[in-house]
Amino acid sequence: MKSLEVDAPLLPGPVTIPHGRFRVRPEELSFTDVEASLLDTTFQGGVQLRGYRTGVDQVAASLHGDVGVEAAKYAYEHFAVPHPYAPGRPSP
């Protein structure tokens, strides 16, 4: 696939996917070899969504990349990121 944009209510903004591979099966939707961006974050890797037709009941992801301040704040507020890992000012 090339130049895909996904806007889902669970996400804080659209995910832009310049390229990657996908596979659709009745029970699973998977994305591999993906490069993507969300807010001020860029990442590469893959995601598998099980039960996507009736409501996703399982997500498996393997991603690496760079997380920006905006995305870090969103994760901290919505995913119970422990306090020591909360976004903040750099140490002097």
Give an overview of the whole structure.
The model has no long low-confidence stretch (mean pLDDT 86). This protein has 92 residues and is mainly beta. Strands 1-2-3-4-5 form a five-stranded antiparallel sheet, covered by helices on one side. It contains one helix and five strands.
Features of this protein?
92 residues; mainly beta; 5-stranded antiparallel sheet; 50% strand
How would you briefly describe this protein structure?
With 92 residues, this protein is mostly beta strands. 11% of the residues lie in helices and 50% in strands.
Strand order of the largest sheet: 1-2-3-4-5
**CA-CA gap between termini:** 44 Å
The total of helices stands at 1
Rounded to an integer in angstroms, the radius of gyration calculated over CA atoms is 15 Å
Oligomer: single chain
Shape: globular
How is the main sheet built? 5 strands, antiparallel
**Poorly predicted tracts of residues:** none
Q: DSSP strand (E) fraction? A: over 45%
Structural class: mainly beta
The SSE string, one letter per element, is EEEEEH
Instruction: Name the helicity range.
Output: 10-25%
Mean pLDDT score, rounded?
Answer: 86
Number of strands: 5
